[in-house]
Amino acid sequence: MNKYFDEIRKAIQATHRCDAVHMESVHVTQSLAGKTAWDGEVEAFKMGDSSKANVCFAWGSQNAQSGRWNIYYGIGHRPRPDRS
User: Fold this and answer.
1) 3-class DSSP state for residue 55?
2) pTM here?
3) pLDDT tens for each residue of the chain, 84 residues long
């Protein structure tokens, strides 16, 4: 597994005490006052049944001096397909 994905997965599991499985990478561009504030990849993880949410969107960066990872994420609910 990719070290980056593994670091994010471990952070999600440690915080939310549930399994996390990488689903996809999504390119996101965020603008503020007409200028690009952030442009990069966000990772989507499926969260295990023991979590209050079913998806976690996360990204991270590695500190050049310490080598430690800074992980940022938000959790939520991804719509489930209508089974009717």
Assistant:
1) strand
2) 0.77
3) 588 889 999 998 998 888 899 999 999 999 999 999 989 999 999 988 766 788 999 998 888 999 888 999 898 876 665 555
